[in-house]
Design a protein that fits this description.
zinc, 18 strands, 2 domains, alpha+beta
Length: 405
């Protein structure tokens, strides 16, 4: 059941038909003559970020990659930086880079050349280059055929990511009040954050929450756009709605607030394979959002209603979109981050999303490719209302889980 508001509203729930965090890295060239585009008028070096403009990228590649190869230095920092630089570029810029910079190595779909053997960090870059070479040579896939891909893809909700002010406090609350289990926890001091994964079952099969704590930040703004999570549990938290039946329905529900102010809908029901069953977000145009999630992600609308009474017996996680009449914009705050969804092909999935954004709005925020250091392939995008989704390669996700065990 959704929140009860004084204004009328319409809701829709969508689900799948079938079954991370990037950091900004700065690097200063050790030899200014190799990086003319990275120097000021006096020849002084200045820091270059992975989010720098696209114009100097060819100079960066020529200035760092080529000298590194020729001298056979084992400079992992340089290579990781180049890989991350390259991934930030739009495909058309990547193709230009291929033609202008990598033609001397005759890189094509049939020959990976010496680059792929040089260093493990450079292999993902080679694979990326080959992918776009093949994409350029291959015939254009018709839009209708491309839009069928999400429906055939193997997808499921992996986790929802949001920020908290005290990680240990939240872990204690979720485990004691909601009955969740701490699945894994990690601290990344060099990037000044920690995170923890909690849920009602293993990450390989269940939808879980990923809590992020940023060093020194103890409070976040949840905003007006985020609604609530829904779980099947019996007790816990500050009750913001007394337990009782849904108006016009038979489900017994209550609402609870966690220590950071996130609202959880508590649903009384029998055993279910997916207790963490819902994420509710508010949108400004319900029909547009339904089309976006159906076309871009291959989801299926399971219920649309003007009353909060849809049945609570679904055995999977759903994304609930709520439209409040007359409200077209909401504040996002800085607490809720994103939902992660699995895919068998981040590249093809990104193509579909890019196609749909041209029609309905939204944008790709991270081009498909491996995360430096992890090599887990992802892509991310914003929907027309600015809600973020990350698509994660299925095989890479499982490898990452097993690596941390």
């Amino acid at each position: 059941m959704q929140f009860r508001y004084p204004e009328p509203k319409t809701t829709a729930c969508v689900k799948f038909l079938s079954h991370r965090h990037a950091s900004t890295v700065g690097l200063v060239s050790r030899d200014p003559k190799h990086l003319d585009d990275n120097c000021d008028g006096k020849g002084a070096q200045r820091e270059s970020s992975i989010y720098s403009t696209r114009a100097p990228l060819q100079g960066i590649i020529l200035g760092l990659l080529v000298p590194t190869l020729s001298s056979e230095e084992d400079d992992e920092t340089v290579l990781e930086y180049l890989l991350h630089c390259f991934q930030q570029q739009a495909p058309r810029y990547q193709l230009k880079l291929l033609r202008k910079v990598f033609d001397p190595w005759k890189l094509d779909s049939g020959k990976k050349c010496c680059l792929s053997l040089f260093h493990p960090v450079i292999r993902p870059l080679c694979d990326w280059l080959i992918h776009w070479n093949m994409a350029e040579a291959a015939p254009v896939v018709p839009s209708d055929e491309l839009l069928e891909w999400p429906k055939k893809d193997k997808r499921r909700f992996l986790h929802v990511v949001y920020r908290v002010g005290d990680l240990d406090r939240t872990i204690k609350f979720y485990t004691e009040c909601f009955g969740m289990k701490l699945l894994r926890k990690r601290d990344i001091p060099e990037e000044k954050y920690s995170n923890a994964f909690l849920g009602f079952g293993p990450e390989e099969t269940n939808f879980v929450v990923e809590l992020t704590y940023n060093y020194g930040v103890d409070k976040y703004d949840i905003g007006t756009g985020f609604g609530h999570f829904a779980i099947a549990t019996q007790d816990g938290g500050i009750i913001t709605r007394e337990p009782g039946p849904v108006k016009g329905g038979k489900s017994v529900i209550a609402f609870a607030k966690d220590p950071d102010g996130y609202i959880f809908e508590l649903i009384q029901r029998g055993p279910t394979p997916e207790p963490l069953c819902q994420v509710m977000l508010r949108v400004g145009d319900l029909e547009r959002s339904i089309k976006f999630y159906e076309k871009a992600l291959g989801m299926k609308m399971v219920k649309k209603t003007d009353r909060p009474e849809y049945k609570r017996n679904m055995k999977t996680t759903v994304l609930e979109l709520t439209y409040n009449y007359g409200v077209t914009e909401y504040t996002k705050g800085n607490a809720y981050a994103q939902v992660a969804i699995s895919t068998d092909d981040v590249y093809k999935s990104a193509e579909v999303v890019n196609l749909v954004t041209k029609e309905l709005g939204g944008k790709i925020t991270r081009q498909p490719g491996p995360i430096p250091g992890l090599n887990t392939k992802i892509t991310s995008f914003l929907d027309p209302d600015g809600w973020k989704t990350v698509l994660v390669d299925n095989e890479d996700f499982l490898k990452e889980l097993h690596k941390e065990e």
